[in-house]
Every structure is written in C-alpha cells, then in structure tokens.
From TrEMBL:
Domain of life: Bacteria
Compartments reported by the entry: Cell membrane
Pfam families: MMPL, Patched
Keywords: Cell membrane, Membrane, Transmembrane, Transmembrane helix
The protein, known as: RND family transporter
InterPro entries for this protein: MMPL_dom, Mycobact_MmpL, PTHD_SSD, SSD
Membrane-spanning ranges: 12-31, 195-214, 219-241, 247-268, 295-314, 320-346, 379-401, 561-581, 588-608, 614-638, 658-678, 684-706
Lipid biosynthesis in keyword set: no
The keyword Transmembrane helix is annotated on this UniProt entry: yes
Membrane association type: Multi-pass membrane protein
SSD domain ranges (all copies): 226-346, 561-712
C-alpha cells in the first residue's frame, strides 16, 4: 500500500483536481439539506405510537397549534375586559396566516351548538383556557401550512409579538408562548443559534491549536483545508441522501472538524520527529505515513463502526448523525493520505523541516514524563483507577431513564417560561391521550362503565392532576344517556363542539390525562401501572397505548437507550476480536476492552451519582464514543513493540514517540466537545459534557494505566 501511495503522490495536480472537482460536484446538494426542526422529526414514520398520534390528530381535528397565554396584572379580570379581548382577537385574525383562534375565544363565542348541551353548568374545558383567578387566558392559534417553515414561522412569531406588545402596551399584560408549534419554533432557534456560535468558535479553536503547535505553513494549510473539505463533502452527501438534520445535528460540524484535526496531528507529530532526525521533507512524510498508517486505518475503521452504531437508534435524525460522521471519518482518512500529503509536499526545502516550535513540543513531552513515572510507579494510577471503578459501578446502578423534552431549554428560554406558566395555571403542559374504540358506540352502557372505572383509577395516580372524558359532557349537559343519544341523532357531535372528544359515528373517543411536571422514568412507571391495571379488566373494544408528545419522547428515550447499550456491547466484542486478530493475544484483547469500557463506567457512574439519567443526548454518547476513544488505544497497542515490554529504556523511548500525539489529540477532542457546551439545547450539552469527560478519562487510562498493564501481557521468560 505504501508503494501505491508513493506512486499516487507523483501526480499532485491530479489529486488536487480530483478533490476540487468532487467538492464542486456536491456543492449544489448542500442547498438541498433537509433541515427539519419539527418536534416530531425525531420519530420514525412507521412507529406505531407515532402513526396512532397522527391518526388521532387527523380524526379529532387536533392540529399542531401555537398556544398564546396572556396574563393580566393583579386584580385583572378577563370577564370584565371583553373589549380588550376583542381587540386582541381582531389583531390576530387580521393576519392572513392565522387560520383560526381557539381556546378562550372559542369558549366565549361558543362552538357550534354546544350551548344546547351546556344550559346551566360550566363548560368542561373552561379551566383549561382560563385560570381560577380569571387573570390568565389561553388562546390556540392555527396557521396556514405555508407559514410553518422554520424561517417564516420564526418571523411570524416575532411579528405577532411586536403587534401584541404594541397593543397591550400600558395594560400590564404578559405574553407567553407554548404548544407544539412553540416547540418547533424553539428547535429552529436553537439550531440557528448553535451554528452561529459553533462555527466561529470552531475556527478560533482550530487556529489556536494549529498555530500553537504546528507552525508549519504546509501542514497548517493541509490540516485546515482537509477539515473543511471533509465537512463540505459530508454536507453534500447529507443533501444528496436527504438525511434529516434537526436541532441535535448542530454539533455535527464540531465533531467532524475535531476528529479531522486529531488525525492530522498524529501525522504531523511523526513527521516533525523524523525531520528533526535529519530526514528531508519528502522522506519524513513517507516514513510518517508508514509509521502511522496501521493505527490510523484501524482507528478510522473502528470510529466509522462506532458512529454507524447510531443507525440502530429508532430516531431518524440520530441515524443520520451516525451516517454523516462515519462518512466524514472515512473521507478524512482519504484526504490525509492524498490531499494533505500533496500540500505538505510543497514544503520541499529543509527550512520547512526544522522544529520551529520547540516550546510546544517540550510542553507535550510533559505527558511522556508523566507516562514514564507511572510506568516506574504504577501503584498510584492503578489504585485511582480501581477506586474510580468502585464508585463508577455504584453510580451506574443508579442510572434511570430520565428525559424531559420540555427541560431541554434554559430557564430564560421563552418555551421554558411558557411551559412553566401553563403547568402552574392550566395543568396542560404534560399530558397523555388514550384512544378508546368501541364498535357499539361511546354511549354503550358497558363502554360508559369502563370509561368511568378507568377515569377513577387514573385520578388515583400521584402523577395525574386531571382526567377529561366524554362523561364530563354528560354531567355538564345534565342529560341521561338515552336523552343524549337522541341529541346525537339530530346533531352530530362535531357540530355540538365535541369533535375533539368523540367521532361522529360515536365509535371512537378520547381519554385525556393531564400530569404534573414529570420525567421519563415517572411517566414510564405510570404507564406500567396503567397496563397492569388494564390487564386485569374486562371491557369491550380496544384501548390504544398512551399517546402524546411526552409519551412518544419517553418511549423514544427508552428504546434509544436500550439499542445504544446493546450496540455498544456488540462493538466492544468486535473490538476485542479485532485486537486479538491484529496482535494474536487474548490478554491484549482484554486490555483493549478495559481501556474502552472503564472510562464509560467511571463517567456514567459519576453521572448517575450526581442525578443524571439516560436521556436522548446521554445515550447517544454510549453509541458513538467508543469509535472516538479507541483511536488512542490502538496507537499504543499497535505501535508499542512487544520486544520492549521488559526493556525499560526501549519502552520509555517508544512512549516518548507515541504519548505526545495522544495527549494533544485528546486535548483537541476535549476542547472541541467543550464547544458543544455553548449550546442552549439540553441533548447537545449533555452529549458534549459526557463525551469530553470520557475522552479525558480514556486519556488518563491510556497514559497512566495502560502501559503498566501492557507490560504484564508478555511473560518475562519469553523476553529477548
């Protein structure tokens, strides 16, 4: 393979033209990127719960809406401010993108012939749209589909905010937004905000790292341009394959660039060491590739496999995440073997081969001295690792599925504030919906008795604050079942304002359950209790599983965690087999297994002990991180010579050659992932924090523990 690369380097112009033509060819595809910031973009279209949720939306006329919450000052009473409400209503309806206004406005103006059913009792939905103190009302806004694109909808909300703020100026009214469309709005805002932060921060980080350490213009140009080319080509593939990009995809450029920098720095470190020994630029380049190609190749292969494990996730954006990063890693290896080497070949004079940054090299040699000290005195490092294993093992047992899609945003975020007001005022921020189907109709006596029993059971659960069923309308109307049957014969339920509770043929009805603010673990526990209770009941018809955004996210989080954990275990086994095949040693295979498993146990143990849980962001780390941390392990296990295991002087020399690049690449990866902590989006923040901690822990193991354990893999009697 080295000979083929050398022949290829003899045609630098062809290599440059190939990559430039390829970059130009994919450029039009970048404008076709499938950016989807809808909250339901994370669910697979063929998921049963998602299909039922969309069917429920269409059947019961429950489209995604924007909830506008208006809160008045102390003593404000909306019943006495009908003119103000009419003015707000007129302002909203004047906007051509607004299709309808529901909520409190619908209750005030009536819906169809619902007043025929509600002659003397309160409207069943009243407490959902006006607070007990009558200070706060909730309006539901439905929009034209053409206005729901991320760019247009953000502008539309800003326009409505400005108009309403001008309208209520001096009235001491507060405006809040919530609901499915508000979630879409904030996902789009987070995506654009993260890119605005990440790209300049990433460029600054790249400039600092390369300028501080590399200081060779061919290598600076080659490594930097390779990272940009791999990012550009990856975006082109994303557009060509129409892979879905969501809010969590905003961190992909960070991962691509830092992985590219880490790979390039390995090659540069080897080139500089060889050039300082007197080799010219071309020979040092060739020898660096020859020395680093096996670990780079197998590291890239394992990294690709690690990220491809994300395709086992049930969420399409997470699958796309894994495919794109795996593609970028493969492209990046090809770029470093061709494009980077051609750019480096421009510096043919010896002036480019001298070490013009001795201070940077000496700083990194500190890691070599640290590794040598740990080799001489392994007990402190091994004791610390053992202690971390004990605490990590305890913490891992405390991990639970803990996710909250409403908690992805900071306290000053408009969606978070809207969710808080909604939960405290209307109890509608968290809810589940059950679809009950009975061929005999919703007014069948057995169906009515079952719904009554089900409602009473639900109200006994500590997470439940309210249950709405069709029976509430029976009571509000003051009519018996027979009388209500006669009413429905003359007037369909949809015309009576009951289209959101029951279908016109009366065969399907909804049971709406409102919950206290809760996380994934509590919601899944509630569903288990409900399922256990239902298994003991005899009832006609069918009852769907719990539906609604929170339930969908809860099950997505659980399924994703299980799939990521299983795929991670499969990857560990594959890695062990790979190491055994490469080095022919079961001990080395087990050592590689430890080096990549223990850092995860340490960090996730800490995460569990500090109250963290398995969420959408943290479980992605389980699936992808192995492909990143295995790279440094392979550099050690494949480049350390077994003959040096019991020759301290030779082993120290080899560590001096290997550990500086490992330390620098770990630093680059940690710094790159720390950029993700600039995000306001919870999954990205968790993914970045946990990844940085695991990479740092893996560096500790590789530097201070692995060499000592590696020596014991080779018996002394067999030493030359």
């Amino acid at each position: 393979m080295y000979g083929y690369l050398i022949k290829l380097w003899r045609h630098p112009l062809s290599i440059v033209l190939f990559w430039l033509v390829l970059a130009a060819a994919v450029s039009p595809m970048i404008w076709q990127l499938n950016i989807n910031t809808r909250y339901d973009a994370y669910f697979a279209p063929d998921d049963l719960r998602y299909e039922l949720s969309r069917e429920l939306t269409d059947t019961f006329n429950r489209p995604d809406t924007l909830w506008l919450i208006i809160r008045g000052q102390q003593g404000w009473q909306w019943q006495h401010q009908q003119s103000q409400l009419e003015l707000i209503n007129d302002t909203l309806t004047a906007n051509s993108e607004v299709l309808s206004i529901g909520g409190y406005t619908e209750l005030v103006h009536g819906s169809g012939h619902s007043e025929a059913l509600l002659s003397y009792k309160a409207h069943p939905r009243e407490s959902l749209v006006i607070s007990n103190d009558a200070r706060t009302v909730l309006l539901e806004l439905e929009f034209e589909q053409s206005a729901l694109s991320p760019e247009l909808f953000g502008q539309l909300i800003e326009q409505l905010q400005w108009q309403l703020t001008e309208l209520v100026d001096g009235q001491q009214l507060e405006l809040f937004f919530y609901g499915p469309l508000a979630l879409n709005w904030q996902y789009a805002e987070v995506f654009s905000s993260d890119l605005a932060w990440f790209m300049p921060s990433l460029m600054l980080l790249t400039a600092i790292l390369l300028g501080w350490y590399v200081r060779s213009w061919p290598w600076l140009l080659g490594i930097g341009s390779s990272a940009l080319l791999s990012l550009w080509l990856t975006l082109g593939i994303a557009g060509w394959l129409a892979l879905p990009l969501t809010a969590i995809s905003g961190v992909i450029p960070v991962i691509l660039v830092v992985l590219s920098l880490a790979s390039g720095i390995h090659l540069f470190t080897g080139w500089r060491r060889l050039s300082n020994l007197g080799l010219d630029c071309i020979e040092a380049r060739r020898r660096s590739i020859e020395e680093h190609l096996p670990p780079l190749f197998w590291g890239a292969l394992t990294t690709c496999c690690g990220f491809l494990l994300l395709t086992f996730s049930p969420s399409p954006p997470i699958k796309a995440f894994g495919i794109l990063v795996a593609f970028a890693v493969a492209i990046n290896l090809l770029l470093h073997l061709t494009w980077l080497m051609v750019i480096v070949g421009l510096g043919r004079s010896k002036g480019h081969s001298r070490d013009n940054n001795p201070k940077g090299a000496r700083r990194l040699e500190c890691s070599s001295r640290l590794a040598i000290k740990a080799l001489r005195r392994p007990l402190p490092g091994l004791s610390l690792a053992l202690l971390a294993c004990v605490f990590g093992g305890v913490g891992v047992t405390q991990l639970v599925f803990k996710d909250d899609p409403l908690g992805y945003f900071p306290a000053d975020n408009p969606l978070h504030q809207g969710a808080e007001v909604t939960a405290n005022t209307f109890y509608a921020a968290n809810y589940q919906t059950f679809l009950y189907t009975n061929p005999n109709g919703a007014l069948d006596s057995e169906a009515v008795r079952f719904v009554n029993r089900f409602s009473r059971f639900l109200k006994q659960q500590p997470e439940v604050v309210r249950v709405d069923t069709l029976i509430d309308w029976f009571r509000a109307a003051g009519l018996g079942r027979s009388a209500l049957e006669q009413v429905f014969k003359s007037t369909p339920p949809s015309e009576l304002g009951l289209g959101r509770e029951v279908t016109d043929d009366l065969q399907r009805q909804l049971v709406q359950v409102y919950l206290r603010p809760t996380d994934t673990a509590s919601m899944l526990a509630l569903e288990q209790r409900i399922n256990s209770w239902l298994a003991q009941q005899q009832y006609p018809g069918e009852l769907s599983p719990a539906l609604g955004p929170q339930s969908l996210y809860a099950h997505l989080s659980e399924d994703n965690a299980i799939n990521m954990l299983l795929s991670f275990l499969v990857a560990l086994v594959m890695l062990s087999l790979l190491l055994y095949w490469l080095r022919g040693s079961i001990r080395l295979a087990l050592l590689g297994l430890m080096a990549n498993l223990l850092p995860l146990i340490w960090v996730f143990g800490y995460w569990g002990m500090t109250g963290g849980g398995l969420s959408l962001g943290s479980t992605m780390v389980i699936g992808m991180i192995l492909g990143i941390i295995v790279d440094d392990t392979l550099h050690l296990l494949l480049r350390l010579d077994a003959k040096a295991a019991h020759h301290p002087f030779i082993l120290r020399r080899q560590l001096i050659r290997i550990t500086p690049a490992i330390s620098l690449t770990s630093l680059v990866l940690v710094a790159g992932f720390m950029l993700g902590m600039l995000s306001d989006f919870g999954p990205i923040l968790e993914l970045s924090l946990l990844s940085a901690l695991i990479i740092g822990s893996a560096w500790f193991f590789d530097l201070l523990v692995l060499p000592s354990l590696w020596r014991h893999c080779f018996p002394k009697q067999n030493a030359p």
